[in-house]
Design goal:
Blueprint: E1 2-8, E2 13-19, E3 25-29, H1 35-45, E4 48-53, H2 59-62, H3 65-72, E5 75-78, H4 80-86, E6 105-107, E7 113-116, E8 119-125, E9 134-138, E10 141-145, E11 148-149, E12 152-153, H5 163-174, E13 181-184, E14 190-191, H6 192-198
Parallel strand pairs: 3-4, 4-5, 5-6, 10-13
Antiparallel strand pairs: 1-2, 2-3, 7-8, 8-9, 9-10, 11-12, 13-14
Length: 202
Amino acid sequence: MEINLLTLGAYQTNCYILCAPESQTCAVIDPGYAPEKILAFLADKGLTLDAILLTHGHFDHVGGVEALVKATGCALWMHQSDYTQFKSAENDFFYPIHDCDFCEVHFCQEGELIHAGGLTFSVMHTPGHTWGSVCYLCENALFSGDTLFAGSCGRVDFPGSSPAQMRSSLARLAEIEADLTIYPGHGNRTTLSTEKQTNPFF
């Protein structure tokens, strides 16, 4: 798997562009900002965007979605719980796609397999940071969004957050035996074994 990282926006959100070797198609995880930079990268690499996979619905992870979908016609995957929040004008954390009529949204479920960019992603529903937070497992990599960071975890003081659900989600991740490489929504990558040994939230 080829993993390309663009760190975008004021919140330094990690946007991952993923494809199988020799593939002409790709998947993008969390295009939070600067869709023009993502499109320029795709054009430079000669890649066609298959699908956008969202780890959750906060504005710093979804800001580039509408422009990318309109430019490429790609599929959009996310958990239904966070999609519902897009339509809530009272929850600014989920801005800016309150109106999702620009595309058909595919709702991912726990254990579902998503095929994009020549790769297969397995969905883990990991609520806590938001109701609909998910992690995507692909080969030996876990794209953890704002569920798990190097040495920390996502905030649980936002609307839709839950400390109890976060503890449960982190406990699930701690039960994974494979030593996965963790690609978080912010900050540096890490490994699951390192987090088990050093992360105070596990």
